[in-house]
């Protein structure tokens, strides 16, 4: 089939490549000219997609353009994979989706339109369908992308598909089944939308719980990592979650608030979500507070102290910095007068909101090593060498047994 994927990011590019590999003629429509240029040159900008996989498809099954008219003139299927961030007020920003709808209406007369971007329950039925108007079949199929996951990818991760009529659902199931191993049809777009929000709200609330437990364990003088490790030996009724410096990534930091916002509009409280929000969003400040506390115990003032950060991506072994807690931690440290540097081979350059520009470097002597993102390539066994303090926000030094010498290693 002729397929247009709107948005060539972490969701759209792997999806487009997979569909093209299974015989579809796929166009990626993205307004970012640099993405279009890289795809056209056979270059990937996402770790989960190789250059070779793009290059072998450029002979006629895959191409990219920033022209809406070219991308949307002939498709039989249009898949919307654009960002749906939160505004500063934590209200949904659906402007990218509505812009995509406008482009579809302008250039495409009849097609199956599948929305994969996260939205609140009811959006597809209440907003997307009326905005599109008649002549289109519509489905909602939430993305389940986990960048850097070596086991689960777009092809083998079960795909939820919701539609509001049997005919639309059958059409969407037939399309996605042509290149995805398992599809899971549900009764409506509202159900499919809520499935996505439940998945990440489950994680968000449990991460909030364990982040709060970590602070409680510090007060109790108990090692939270030992507690979780021991609790994980229970073969039923327990699933381990781990504390960290905060929560990052586009979906996990957004989806629970989409559900909370929708429920507030219906005059219903989402108390668990709001409690987890308070804990998770305060973690970067807590990291800086604990660093100051540990430095004070050594008779060191944070102002003027050199702090070297390992990892600024939001999760290990990817280059994605969206909503990364490292950004808030670095900004907070900068405001308090720390001398900053970082190392992250996945993120060579970084600009903070304060417009402070940093470059990744491994050749640095620093008073403090702050482990924020646990990339696999770091030398954890020797992380304490040359520092006066190591603050480990991921508990990774517990697993690697580093040589500390006289340097204290503190795990949050």
Strand proportion: 5-15%
- Rounded mean pLDDT is 95
Structural class: alpha/beta
Task: Write down the CATH topology of the largest domain.
Answer: Rossmann fold
Q: What's the CATH H-level superfamily name of the largest domain? A: NAD(P)-binding Rossmann-like Domain
- How many DSSP helices? 13
Distance between the termini: 51 Å
Sheet with most strands: 6 strands, parallel
- What spatial order of strands do you see in the largest sheet? 3-2-1-4-5-6
Order of helices and strands: EHEHHEHEHEHEEHEHHHHEHEEEEEHE
Radius of gyration: 23 Å
CATH class group of the largest domain: Alpha Beta
Assembly context of the chains:
single chain
Low-confidence stretches are none
Sum up the structure in keywords.
alpha/beta, 412 residues, Rossmann fold, single chain
């Amino acid at each position: 089939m002729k397929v247009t994927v709107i948005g060539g990011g972490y969701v759209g590019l792997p999806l487009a490549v997979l569909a093209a590999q299974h015989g579809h003629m796929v166009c990626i429509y993205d307004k970012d000219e640099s993405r279009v240029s890289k795809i056209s040159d056979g270059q990937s900008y996402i770790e989960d997609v190789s250059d070779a996989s793009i290059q072998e498809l450029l002979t006629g099954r895959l191409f990219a353009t920033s022209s809406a008219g070219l991308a949307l003139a002939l498709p039989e299927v249009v898949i919307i994979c654009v960002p749906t961030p939160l505004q500063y007020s934590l209200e949904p920003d659906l402007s990218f989706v509505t812009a995509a709808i406008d482009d579809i209406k302008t250039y495409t007369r009849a097609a199956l339109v599948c929305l994969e971007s996260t939205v609140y329950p009811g959006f597809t039925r209440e907003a997307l369908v009326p905005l599109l108007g008649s002549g289109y079949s519509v489905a909602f199929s939430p993305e389940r992308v986990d960048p850097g996951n070596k086991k689960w990818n777009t092809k083998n991760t079960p795909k939820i598909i919701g539609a509001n009529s049997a005919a639309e659902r059958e059409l969407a199931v037939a399309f996605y089944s042509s290149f995805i191993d398992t599809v899971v049809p549900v009764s409506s777009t509202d159900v499919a939308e809520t499935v996505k929000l439940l998945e990440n709200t489950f994680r968000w609330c449990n991460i909030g719980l364990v982040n709060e437990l970590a602070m409680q364990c510090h007060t109790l003088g108990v090692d939270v990592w030992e507690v979780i490790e021991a609790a994980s030996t229970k073969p039923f009724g327990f699933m381990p979650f781990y504390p960290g410096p905060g929560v990052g990534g586009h979906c996990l930091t957004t989806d629970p608030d989409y559900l909370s916002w929708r429920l507030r509009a219906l005059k219903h409280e989402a108390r668990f979500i709001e409690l987890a929000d308070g804990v998770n969003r305060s973690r970067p400040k807590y990291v800086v507070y604990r660093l100051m506390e540990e430095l004070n115990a050594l008779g060191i003032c944070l102002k003027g102290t050199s702090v070297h950060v390992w990892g600024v991506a939001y999760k290990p072994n990817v280059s994605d910095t969206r909503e990364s807690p490292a950004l808030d931690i670095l900004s907070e440290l900068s405001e308090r007068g720390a001398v900053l540097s970082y190392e992250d081979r996945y993120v060579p350059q970084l600009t903070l909101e304060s417009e402070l520009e940093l470059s990744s470097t491994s050749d640095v002597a620093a008073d403090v090593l702050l482990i924020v993102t646990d990339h696999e390539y770091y030398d954890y066994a020797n992380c304490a060498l040359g520092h006066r303090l190591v603050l480990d926000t991921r508990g990774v030094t517990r697993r690697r047994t580093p040589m500390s010498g006289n340097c204290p290693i503190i795990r949050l």
